Amino acid sequence: MRGECTITLEDVHLQLGLPVDGYAVTGFTQSADWGAVCYELLGAIPDRIKGGRIEMGWLRDTFPEPDDDSTELELIRYARAYILQIIGGYLMPDLSRNLVHLRWLLKLVDFRAAGELSWGSTVLATLYREICGATVSNKAKIGGCLSLLQSWARYRLPFLRPRVNHPHTFLLIMRWNHSASYVGILTSLEDIRLLLDQRSEAQFEWTPYEDPAVRAVIPDEFLQNPNIWHVKAPMVTYAIVEMHQSDRVLRQFGFRQSIPVTPEKLDDEHEIDFH
């Protein structure tokens, strides 16, 4: 295929339903007393805190589902623990798949304030960083929201998409929760690479969300500010800085693609992490 394509803020917004136009998720973490943070916000302290990370299993065991007798404080603590599990297990899992950093907990002090943050750009920046790291030849694992990556590919590459006989629903990523037929779908990596090389750009679905069947299930509130989807800007979340290079994939937004300028180089920023 000719032309560039990538996951964008539009995909995160419509696939996962996460806000993409709020405040950046960032702040100071180096001086935090993580045990004190856990006690204040969760009411419990795990036996082990590894570099600001706690085990997902501890969250599941310590915070079972609340019942009708739960107090408001217990419900708030459960909600924080549940959101942490979603972040560490689905939206932004690290390579361990069993640890979640408590820096996210610092953003759950006030749920109203948390709702004003750009969680969508945070998830996308994290996935960009993980995809970048996975290009290293000796890298065997990748973190980030791989369900989003898979769903993005299925919406845009119909020749690799399993058949689902079920109406579209919102969130769009939930389409793959239904039973699907994989008859005729290639599974070998070598075969998939060859198939991609053989396909033309006309066989790539540049604007899958314009399909009337898809558009019909997207709530109006998610279509109020489409301009935010194709803004070219750095996405910042703690130690991660990634460019949203929307100018290189204008066809995904229904625009004519001009010759893009040289992409932003963030080599220095990519050397920074939490380790």
From TrEMBL:
InterPro entries: AminoTfrase-like_pln_mobile, MAIN-like. GO terms for biological process: meristem maintenance. Pfam families: PMD (PF10536). Residues 3-263 form the Aminotransferase-like plant mobile domain. It comes from Gossypium stocksii. This is Aminotransferase-like plant mobile domain-containing protein. Transmembrane segments: none annotated.
